[in-house]
Amino acid sequence: MSQRLDITGLTSGYGRIDVLHDLSVSMGIHGNVGLFGPNGHGKTTLLRTVSGLIKPSKGSIAFNGVELSTLTPRAIVELGLIHVSQGNRLFPDLTIGECLSLGAFTKAARGREEASREEVLRIFPKLGERWRQKVRTLSGGERQMVSIGTALMSCPKMLVLDEPTLGLAPKIKEELCIAVMRISKQGVPLIVVEQDVEFLLELSNHLYLINHGEIAAEIKPGQSLDHAEIMSLYFGK
Ligand SMILES: Nc1ncnc2c1ncn2[C@@H]1O[C@H](COP(=O)(O)OP(=O)(O)OP(=O)(O)O)[C@@H](O)[C@H]1O
Ligand SMILES: [Mg+2]
Question: What is the domain count for the chain?
């Protein structure tokens, strides 16, 4: 079944400050979606609002027709919408194995823990080599693998990644990009925020530029843009 996320007239932010302004966008219908845009313009705020961590002041977020804006983050995870936060937040004293087990708490995931674990280790073999190592002793790239692996343990119907390669050295970044592509090939639709637009274009043929809390531009499936055109979208002509 294809998965869809329909956001309509979304206004959201922190306290009395709105970051997103009447934002509307539908995602998932054409497969993966990439989101990009300047720092501080609301990409993370959008993802946090979708996953219930911030309550919107206006608008609707529907996942396969179910309204999310009144649900708890836990209930949203149960529906299969799984969000991997920017700057991976993991319990430092847990081992890799313990972290992954925590991901398998949803109803859909419980009976499939063993199969999901094998799947995660196929995608990230490094995690198997370091199974009993504590999270706090891992490198940034390895932590990101644990974060995404834990999300996969929840049996996502849609996976939302906020800057999965942020701050990683080129070699480990490459490794992670390959893993994300592999996850995508298994049929889980992805919503990915990244500064690396080239990677987004490899992953998805549908991109949105978020600027000042609004959708400022769309790159549609079938529309090909070269690097210079993307840069001019990003920085203005
Ligand atoms: N917890 C918070 N309380 C108040 N303001 C916040 C909070 N988190 C973010 N903001 C503000 O909201 C705005 C949007 O931030 P957001 O993190 O959504 O941007 P972003 O596009 O994800 O940026 P980046 O590319 O740096 O990750 C910024 O002005 C930021 O300072
Ligand atoms: Mg962000």
Answer: 1
pTM above 0.90, yes or no: yes
Q: Mind listing the pLDDT tens digit for each residue in 98-149?
A: 999 999 999 989 989 999 999 999 999 999 999 999 999 999 999 999 999 9
Calpha distance 116→113 (Å, rounded): 5
Q: How far is the CA of 40 from the centre of ligand 2 (A)?
A: 7
Query: How far apart, in whole angstroms, are the C-alpha atoms of residue 52 and residue 14?
Result: 13
Distance 217 CA to ligand 1 centre (A): 20
Q: Which ligand is nearest to the CA of 16?
A: 1
CATH number at residue 25: 3.40.50.300
* CA gyration radius, the chain: 17
Q: What residues make up the domain containing 79?
A: 5-235
pLDDT digits (tens, 9 = 90+) for 152-161: 999 999 999 9
The verdict on the CB of residue 42 being under 6 Å from ligand 1 is yes
Does 86 sit in the ligand 1 pocket, CB within 6 Å? yes
